[in-house]
């Protein structure tokens, strides 16, 4: 019997890379996508292969429908099955107020974080749905605690893009529950990855950690644990759930 296959968008770094490695240790074959960081993505693939699992890294901008379709086609051709999808690729932007937002900023944010998530979910549902001849599967969305908190004076657009993802999780979970597909989300809090620097705030974790009830940021591995559980057969009756992984930052 072939191993189960998971596709993780944005698997070159941070939470996606930790999820890829954790999934491989649990016996999954893993496809990761990335946007720019070719070397980091291929280092993740090498680590997975050294664990004895199959792996591939594919450059695919989730802001492009065409590139998303190519990504899923590659999974079809090279792996022949898709058992789980982790919709993890996401971006933040510079800290700004809503009054300062440009159209360009809003279009980029929603194209990558929201429309990209919907298009990836669509491609997975088409392949997994038992009513379409698939074997069922699991979709895990990587949302954010920002969807609860709103991220004022930081990035309300990012928070809103994740709020849309949460509602997609609830609606899609019900839409495909009878077709063998579970859909859940994790909502990480302050996690130690490069994303803060990419938003122009490299000190964000250190600065905000004291405001977290647990008084620390989380690790990508702590988020990966929950994602891999949601992907797996160990959570067979869990769908439509939004799980906070935020050290009590609610
Ligand atoms: P990260 O370290 O910045 O990694 C982001 C990943 O997404 C990278 O693999 C990156 O690829 C990929 N990516 C970015 N834009 C992409 C695009 N247009 N197309 C395809 N891939 C793209 O971020 P992270 O902290 O691990 O974040 C992962 C997810 O967790 C995001 O959805 C984020 O919103 C969410 N999250 C993070 C935190 C946190 O505190 N870190 C908290 C809550 C939620 P390249 O390496 O090629 O650039």
Automatic annotation (TrEMBL):
Keywords: Oxidoreductase
Record Gene3D superfamilies: NAD(P)-binding Rossmann-like Domain (3.40.50.720)
Transmembrane segments: none
InterPro entries given in the database record: KR_dom, NAD(P)-bd_dom_sf, Sc_DH/Rdtase_CS, SDR_fam
Entry-linked PROSITE patterns: ADH_SHORT (PS00061)
Protein name (record): SDR family oxidoreductase
Record has Metal-binding as a keyword: no
Family: Belongs to the short-chain dehydrogenases/reductases (SDR) family.
Keyword flag Iron: no
A Pfam family the protein falls into: adh_short_C2
Organism name: Comamonas avium
Domain Ketoreductase positions: 4-184
